[in-house]
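Tokens in:
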């Protein structure tokens, strides 16, 4: 996913530079070059949109639902309570703060 983000960053930078080239061609009244550059820019825009969609899908697929996260956390701390009651009691504030933080992400 990180490579895909880097690729998107590179494509976006290239697309911005291409826009500058389009403006220069437009100012010099080179309609043929401007048209060619616009076609290239449209292709890049489609490529960026495709990669963005892929990245969004990967993000969705790799996220753990909040309900599952809470169930796992509950199981861990339940086992902690049975094995080490005093330690469990010391973690109650942490559990509450952590759940608040995590729930804001989702």
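Residues out:
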């Amino acid at each position: 996913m990180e490579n895909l983000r880097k690729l998107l960053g590179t494509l976006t930078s290239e697309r911005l530079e291409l826009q500058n080239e389009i403006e220069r061609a437009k100012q010099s009244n080179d309609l043929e070059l401007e048209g060619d550059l616009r076609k290239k820019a449209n292709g890049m825009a489609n490529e960026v949109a495709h990669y963005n969609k892929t990245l969004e899908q990967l993000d969705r697929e790799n996220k753990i639902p909040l309900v599952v996260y809470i169930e796992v956390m509950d199981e861990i701390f339940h086992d902690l309570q049975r094995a080490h009651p005093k330690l469990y009691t010391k973690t109650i504030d942490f559990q509450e703060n952590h759940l608040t933080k995590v729930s804001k992400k989702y």
